[in-house]
Write a structure and sequence with these properties.
Elements (H helix, E strand, L loop, with lengths): L4 E4 L3 H12 L4 E4 L4 H5 L6 E2 L1 H9 L4 H6 L1 E3 L2 E5 L2 E5 L1 H5 L3 E3 L2 H14 L3 E3 L3 E6 L7 E6 L2 E6 L2 E4 L17 E16 L9 E4 L5 E5 L5 E7 L10 H12 L12 E15 L2 E2 L2 E3 L5 E2 L7 H22 L3 H28 L7 H16 L1 H12 L5
Parallel strand pairs: 1-2, 1-12, 2-8, 5-14, 12-19
Antiparallel strand pairs: 3-7, 4-7, 5-6, 9-10, 10-11, 13-16, 13-17, 14-15, 15-16, 17-20, 18-19
Helix pairs in contact: 1-6, 1-8, 8-9, 10-11
Keywords: FAD, Flavoprotein, Oxidoreductase
EC number: 1.14.13.2
GO molecular function, one term: 4-hydroxybenzoate 3-monooxygenase activity
Length: 390
């Protein structure tokens, strides 16, 4: 097989890159180890920054997003028995949209297949060769057969556990990493959200987040230990803990319903530099991971491939190499801004040590400052809805 850009991974990054390349008249093939059904129903992130919504809309992918996505113009902070709203749109002129990652993936797959795009599901990439030549080769196995995809460039959009990052020779990449001493227990519940905007709660028992995926489905999270056993959390214990951490405002209560899914997600920060080597360009979780507190993961991945799409177009249309050469440095400016914001939100809202009253009082002071200072609230809002340029 031969194409111009070989893309490893059919998550939001890989699929959007393929679509953007198509709009520029550039051929690509997407290789994905999982089935189409799996990637279309894999529940991950659910918050799109204003810039991500604008990007998808410009690319002709906004019809269902604007019809079904939930536009939010603020978030609520709960702490010390108080409730404060951060009016993001009032402060920045921008908003966020709640729209599940799996819905973005469905829209992208539909658009690519409608345009005759090549997405090979259940194609397990085993190695990359010739990345330092003008004809890299992606070796993959599909339907019990070994196959090859030859291309001009390879885009590694295959996540933290994919093969792409490992194809870079030893000594080239530098890794920056932080592991947090807690995790998130997340649930999907068949319960209408009791709020119109997300609630971030700092509580003596630990952090909690009230989110949603649709007018009928709630998405909720609890701070737990990093080695928490999901079996120790029957439904009734989850609801009791959510009530304890969220029902701190008189007269308000959450809506309960059948729990459809539950999982425990460790919290960490991870960045690899550079994000490119020879003819290999890395994007998304393959090179950076943020704790989900700041809702930046999917947005960073989309921003990465927006840069790559323009860079490849400049190379194919005009023979320019400057955008490809600058890809890593340009992308990393946004990545590190998001890393800082995600770390700040995480540190402000999670109980780092349950029995440390000094730390708890610092968090309350910080939250109260956000709630009462327009400048501080604007800083939070700008980062949360997404800075247009970094």
């Amino acid at each position: 097989m031969r194409t111009q850009v070989g893309i490893v991974g059919a998550g939001p990054a890989g699929l959007l890159l393929s679509h953007l390349l198509h709009l520029h008249g550039i051929d690509s093939v997407v290789l994905e180890s999982r089935s189409r059904d799996y990637v279309e129903h894999r529940v991950r992130a659910g918050v799109l920054e204003q810039g991500s919504v604008d990007l998808l809309t410009r690319a002709g992918l906004g019809e269902r997003l604007h019809r079904e996505g939930l536009r939010h113009e603020g978030i609520e902070l709960r702490f010390a028995g108080e409730s404060h709203r951060v009016p993001m749109t009032e402060l920045t002129g921008r908003a966020i949209t709640v729209y599940g990652q799996q819905e973005v993936v469905k829209d992208l797959i539909g658009a690519r297949l409608a345009a005759g795009g090549a997405i090979l599901f259940e194609a397990d990439v085993v190695r990359l060769d010739g990345l330092d030549s003008d004809s890299p080769v992606v070796h993959f196995r599909r339907n019990g057969r070994d196959e090859e995809l030859r291309c001009d460039f390879v885009a590694g959009c295959d996540g933290f556990h994919g093969v792409s990052r490992g194809a870079v020779p030893d000594g080239v990449l530098t890794t920056y990493e932080r592991t947090y001493p807690f995790a998130w227990l997340g649930i999907l519940a068949a319960a209408a959200p009791a709020v119109e905007e997300l609630i971030y709660a700092n509580h003596e028992r630990g952090f909690a987040l009230y989110s949603m995926r649709s007018p009928e489905i709630s998405r909720l999270y609890l701070q737990v230990a990093p080695d928490e056993d999901i079996a120790a959390w029957p439904d009734e214990r989850i609801w009791a803990e959510l009530r304890a951490r969220l029902e701190t405002v008189p007269g308000w209560s959450l809506n309960e319903g059948p729990i459809l899914e539950k999982s425990v997600t460790p919290m960490r920060s991870f960045v690899v530099e550079p994000m490119q080597w020879q003819r290999l360009f890395l994007a998304g979780d393959a090179v950076h991971i943020v704790p989900p507190t700041g809702a930046k993961g999917m947005n960073l991945a989309l921003a990465d491939v927006a840069l790559l799409g323009d860079a490849f177009a400049a190379w194919y249309d005009k023979g320019r190499t400057d955008l490809l050469d600058a890809y890593s440095a340009t992308a990393l400016r946004r990545v590190w801004r998001a890393q800082h914001f995600s770390w700040w939100m995480t540190s402000m809202l999670h109980r780092l040590e349950r029995d440390d009253p000094y730390e708890a009082n610092l968090q309350t002071a910080t939250l109260r400052y956000v709630a009462t200072s327009r400048a501080y609230a604007t800083s939070l809002a700008e980062n949360y809805v997404g800075l247009p340029e970094v």
